[in-house]
Amino acid sequence: MTDPSLARRRFLFGASALGAGALVVGCTSNEPANAGNQQQVAGGGGDNAQPGKEVTIGFSAPAADHGWIAAITKNAQAQADAFEDVTLKATEGTNDVNQQIAQVETLLNSDVDVLVILPHDGKALTSAGQQAMDQGIPVINLDRIFDSPLAYRTWIGGDNYRMGVNAGNYIAEQMKAKNISNPVIGEVAGMDNLPLTQERSKGFKDALQRQGFRVGPRVAAQFTAETGEAQTANLLQGNRKLDALWNHDDDQGIGVLAAIEAVNRSEFIMVGGAGSKNMMNNIKSDSGVVKATVLYSPSMASTAISLARLLGQNKGVADFAEHEIPASITTYSAVVTKENVDDYMDIGFDS
């Protein structure tokens, strides 16, 4: 990640709150602003930019065999490196549930102050999170959620349903702008057995239905370039005409584009998912079918580390009025297009 992007992501959690005098609502009497019933203003976390108590953060995530997961780990390390009062103890990524549980237990025995865990399987890692919380070690549960809120202090992750909604809304707008009244809209989903895929597909379907459209041909891949290519080839072979296509995941999107290019199809627009650099570059060049991608950004890992630091220092978020870190934070799935792609290039990840 570039230094400007780190600075931008740290702003909310690291910058000093605006002076109270600039935020207090004007009084209706002649009393001074600070007298009597003063309104609560942002500033619960104090000056979080200044170095504070040393905090050791344990970090555990799945194996970096996917561009998005690799970016999660890189972002976490980069954010920790930006704080001189933070030490990060990161385990080797693994897709073996039992091994990840063992790694978390090792972190618990290594004097960490806070844990950040992106579980390979949220249900299977719930007990590990609960064990940490029972020992008084707060847990930031990243993205894949534990079965019980008692297993984490704060959850931060993406909004899968709204990701589908925003993809559907963008496609619907484009179809209406082109005066296409009955478009053929395809979907290349991820793994159908995962709740996140189901939520994305439901949001997509709901958004299109509200606009008077429907989802047409649909296939499910496995979040890999290989399966993305194979499944998209099947979809294209069975449908000689498309008007739009939504692909859930930009990593598998490498294969999706390969399949499209192999048969030289260009009559439709394509929307990606997550926000990889190569998809953003395709959007910026505007030379192919890719016109947008809907964010599900791994920058959430940077925020997770910032939150873990504040928990370890017993601070709140500087720009919030509350003195405590929120129990949950849901990131927003912005739609990246040619018009705004430069604003988001700094959080694009390598597929």
UniProtKB/TrEMBL annotation:
The species is Actinophytocola xanthii
Reply yes or no: does the keyword Signal apply. Answer: yes
Question: Domain Periplasmic binding protein spans what residues?
Answer: 57-311
A Pfam family matched by this chain, by name? Peripla_BP_4
Upper classification of the organism: Bacteria, Bacillati, Actinomycetota, Actinomycetes, Pseudonocardiales
Q: State the GO CC annotations.
A: cell envelope
Under the heading InterPro entries, the entry gives: Peripla_BP_I, SBP_2_dom, TAT_signal
A GO MF label? carbohydrate binding
**Similarity comment text for this entry:** Belongs to the bacterial solute-binding protein 2 family.
| UniProt KW keywords | Signal
Signal sequence region: none
The record's subcellular location field reads: Cell envelope
Please state the protein's primary subcellular location.
Answer: other
| Protein name as catalogued | Sugar ABC transporter substrate-binding protein
